[in-house]
Amino acid sequence: MTRPGFGDLLAVLALLITALLAPARSEAQTALRFAWDWAPQGYHAIWALAEERGLFRDGGLRVQMDRGYGSGDTIAKVASGAYDVGFADVNSLVQFNARTPERRVIAVMVVFDRNPAAVVTLRRTGIRTPADLRGRNLGAPEGESSRLLFPAFARAAGIDAGTIRWTSMTASLREAMLASGQVEGITGLQMSAVISLRAAGVRAEDIVVLPYADAGLDLYGHGVVASASFAERNPEALRSFIRATLGGLRAALADPQAGMAAMRRRESLFDEALELQRFTMTRDVAIMTDGVRQNGFGTMAPDRMQRLVAVNAEVNQVANPPAAESLYTNDFLPPVAERMP
């Protein structure tokens, strides 16, 4: 029987040191609770890849990710401390912070540089342009952000919002009611409405989309949000989370199919083929804009944020809108050079 040599003893010692240090590294990780905006969809692959590829771990984070139930619900949960960070529509911050300034929530990174809100209809209705919407019956859940923004879209498009008849329904019934002819159009996020209609068997060539942005409504969409108090107490954790998000975003853009596979491993019922279409549309409509190509991912510009506050304050009849600078900060973003596409 051979006696262990010096090299063998060094190897055993290295293993023991690794075993002893592993718990310490685990204990050093900061636990973060992260709420999405909705049920798992293609664009959530940003964070599935950040997790799978160790970007959270490398940033000293241990992240719990949960589905959301709408931007308003996510923002409320972040404000209450039930979640540390969330992914939500930045527009929803205007009304929330006006009502509860003591629980202020801020945007720390924008992901949808172009707001994907739209009116979606079917070719059989004869609606081709915003002007064709006069007197029509549109459907959306009450309080849904795209419906709330519709008056601003109508004004930008030169139509009278007062001529529209509205039918309210739950979000789960919206596309089905359009497909069955119970309403002539719906409002919602373009990629959500279009892909849900495709999943219901509607042909792509039969779907008509009227994006709000095409009428000149230049607003941001969804981004990463956190309570102002959490950001103040945990700046490094927030910076690490944003760096991991940027890494996951780059990974998803570089290999969308890998992103969908990562989501499927998280969610067994996730439809990779369908959600790949949704992610591709999200990329083209909301993420990879001219502004992002010029200024990098994540940036929020003062003039656009001021416009966002003004539009949302008007359509939601907010008498005491918060100052634009109180709604967001770019301070947690890495340097521009690290954020260019």
UniProtKB/TrEMBL annotation:
<keyword id="KW-0479">Metal-binding</keyword>
<comment type="similarity">
    <text>Belongs to the NMT1/THI5 family.</text>
</comment>
<dbReference type="Pfam" id="PF09084">
    <property type="entry name" value="NMT1"/>
</dbReference>
<keyword id="KW-0784">Thiamine biosynthesis</keyword>
<comment type="function">
    <text>Responsible for the formation of the pyrimidine heterocycle in the thiamine biosynthesis pathway. Catalyzes the formation of hydroxymethylpyrimidine phosphate (HMP-P) from histidine and pyridoxal phosphate (PLP). The protein uses PLP and the active site histidine to form HMP-P, generating an inactive enzyme. The enzyme can only undergo a single turnover, which suggests it is a suicide enzyme.</text>
</comment>
<keyword id="KW-0663">Pyridoxal phosphate</keyword>
<comment type="pathway">
    <text>Cofactor biosynthesis; thiamine diphosphate biosynthesis.</text>
</comment>
<keyword id="KW-0408">Iron</keyword>
<keyword id="KW-0808">Transferase</keyword>
<protein>
    <recommendedName>
        <fullName>Thiamine pyrimidine synthase</fullName>
    </recommendedName>
</protein>
<feature type="domain" description="SsuA/THI5-like">
    <location>
        <begin position="43"/>
        <end position="258"/>
    </location>
</feature>
<comment type="subunit">
    <text>Homodimer.</text>
</comment>
<dbReference type="InterPro" id="IPR027939">
    <property type="entry name" value="NMT1/THI5"/>
</dbReference>
<dbReference type="InterPro" id="IPR015168">
    <property type="entry name" value="SsuA/THI5"/>
</dbReference>
